Amino acid sequence: MQEFLQQVVSGIATGGIFASLALALVLIYNAMGLVNFAQGEMAMFATFIAFALVDSGLNYWIAFPVALAIAFAGGVAVQRLVIKPVERAPLLSLVIVTLGLASLFNGLAGFIFGYVPRSFPSPFSVQTISLAGALVSYRDLGVIGVSVLVLAAVYLLLQKTTVGLTMRAAAHHPEASRLLGVRVSWMLALGWGLASAVGAVSGIMVAPVLLLEPNMMQTIIIYAFAAAVLGGIESPLGAVVGGVIVGVTVNLAGAYVPLVGGSLQLAVALAIIVAVLILKPNGLFGRPGVRRV
Predict the structure, then answer these.
(1) Is residue 24 a contact partner of residue 202, using CB atoms and an 8 Å limit?
(2) Torsion of CA 190, 191, 194, 195, to 10 degrees
(3) What is the CA angle 271-272-274, rounded to 5?
(4) Residue 290 has pLDDT above 80, yes or no
(5) Quick one: DSSP state of residue 282?
(6) Choice between 110 and 258, residue whose per-residue pLDDT is larger
């Protein structure tokens, strides 16, 4: 039972990382009906920026919000410079643009920082404490805490502030928002910035567990896709719940299913995606689409 609890807590911590990136995917999808395949690489690039700030001597807890601010500005810049000129293009063209952005950020990270894996510092100790008889590391608890704070901040921003309400209105009812004087294009840019910052949290939290290198998020993004699909690609709450479920499921499968090891845990995420698309295409919290005939 103790080992089971340890795996669950560790899975929740991992799920918080998946939830952050899944929420970033959901924010972009809600804004444009587009899956941003560059989200993981943008998070990776922001993590390298955080590493450079810490490596230059800046305190971690100062470098963390600075990196998120830079990620936010970068997301806004990407929307204004790359996405806005082609936002009325066919969906397939936009998907190809995001794939190109993923390659661009990956190549830039390799060119600037190199491809040699690096250790990323963590402010949380790997020492353990006993919770209900289970040994849980401070790092897992810290990741859970940071993820909860960030996700709560995003919720409050979107639900309780004028800017958040305006962003949601611009995403769901752009024409009506324009008639009311809302600068819809800039609201979409803020949405891209917010998604970039939230995704950066995922990269910064996972980097101490993995080695920091340009390809580190290519597996994490698949888990995030699984979380977003499971929760409902239009639901921010679904992204969080889906992230936790995927994290715990993958952890437990790796620990207790003999055929699932480190190399096959990704197959669990892919199986979740396929199962949800077959059994409940709209996800746990998604709304069924209505089509007029």
Answers:
(1) yes
(2) -150
(3) 65
(4) no
(5) T
(6) 110
Q: What is the mean pLDDT of residues 275-285?
A: 87
- For 182, counting Cβ atoms within 10 Å of its Cβ (0-12 exposed, 13-18 middle, 19+ buried), the class is middle
Per-residue pLDDT of 53-70, as tens digits, reads 999 999 999 999 999 999
Strands 134-137 and 128-131: antiparallel
C-alpha to C-alpha distance for 155 and 61, rounded to whole angstroms:
22
What pTM was estimated for this model as a whole?
Answer: 0.90
What is residue 98's predicted lDDT score, i.e. its pLDDT? Answer: 94
- Amino acid, res. 115: Y
Other beta carbons within 10 Å of 181:
6
Which amino acid type is present at position 243?
A: G
Q: How far is CA 205 from CA 33, 161, 217, 262, in A?
A: 27, 27, 11, 19
